[in-house]
Each structure stands twice: as structure tokens, then as C-alpha cells.
Amino acid sequence: MKKGSLAVIISVLFGTALFLAVVLFYSSIVKRLKSELQQEKTMARSKQEEMQRLQDEKDKATRDNEKLEQDTISYMALNSRLQEQNEELQKNLEEVRKAREKGLISLRKKSADLEKALNDRENILAQYNKLSSLTDEQKKKVDALSDSLKKERSLYHYNLGVAYSQAKLYFDAIDEYKKSLEFDPDNADSYYNLGILYENYKQDSEKAIDCYRKYLGLKPDAADKYKVEGWIKKLKGI
Question: Model pTM greater than 0.90?
Fold first, then answer.
């Protein structure tokens, strides 16, 4: 082979090698650029997602704040209504209290007047009893009037006990029912009401049972017999 031809071949080979080197060089640059571009796209997408997340949180915070403002307005309106209702209730309670006090004053005045009238009648009967000139027939009439007066006394204290119970003066009611029984030990209704007061307001089961039993003893055929017997069993824990 001639020296000229060898030189040409070497030159071609060298040129080819140089071309391939350039191609590889630019290929690596392109690959690196593509990688960097992909990374930038990924970062851009992440930033976009983060911005969207922040925007969503901002929107949610705005909605929550608006709801809070609405709830605050609703709460203030409700609180205002409650205050008005409370003031109205206090006003009504005060009116009830005044009416109750007025009613009790009237009740006590009327009871005092009736008490005086009963005392006057008792004094008259007492004076008759002192008379030695009374005939047997007159004595019988005086005794009958005395028994009738005791019944009236018993009924008077019973009705007063009912009035005190309605006024929620339960301890005063208990005293009146006891006085009623002093004048008429056979007043079954006084025992009945006493039993209820002992059970529900004095929490005295023993006295309540005793009163219920005496009520049934005086009214064995009472319409509420079985109900009262049930109360007794409950209080005895049966």
C-alpha cells in the first residue's frame, strides 16, 4: 500500500473518531439538558401543587372565618333572646311571688277571722256547760253542738292544710293536718294528705306508712285502696 493511501485512511479514521466524539459529547449534553428539564418540570409541578394546597387552605380559612362570623352573629342573637326570655321569666316569677304573698296574707286574714268565730262559739258553749240549771235535754243539745263544733274545727284545719299545700308551704300544711286530727281523729283525708307530705317532702317513710294505714283503716273500701297499698309496699321495699 502506498504511503499516500495510508495517510488518507488515517485521516478518514481520525475524522470519523473526532465526529463520533463530538456526537457523544453533544448527546451527553442533550441528555443532561433533558434531565435538568425534567427536574425543573417536576419542581414546577411540585411548586404548583404546593401553591394550590396553600390556596385551598386559604379558601378553607376564609370559609371557616365566614362561618365563624355567622355563628358569632347567631350566638349573639340567641344570647340576646335568652336574656330577654330570662328577664321575662324573672318578671313572671316575681309576679307569681307577689300574688302568692298577697294570697297568703288574704288566706291568713280569713283564717284568723274564722278562728275567732270558732273561738267565740266555743266560749259560748263553755258558758252553757257551766250552767247548773241545764236540763238533761239541754245538756244533750250542748254536747251535740260541741261535737259539731269539733267537726267544724277539724274541717277548718284540714282546708287550711290543703291551702298551705297548694301554696307549697308544706310544713305549715303538716301542722294544720295534725290539728285537724286533734279535733277529729277519724278524718281519713287528713291522714291521706299527711302521708303524702311525709313521704315526698319530709322523707319520713315510717310516718308516711303509718298515715296510709290509718287512712285505709278508716276507709277500707276506698277507691284508691290498691294504689295506696302499692305506696306502702314501695316504702317498705317490698
Answer: no
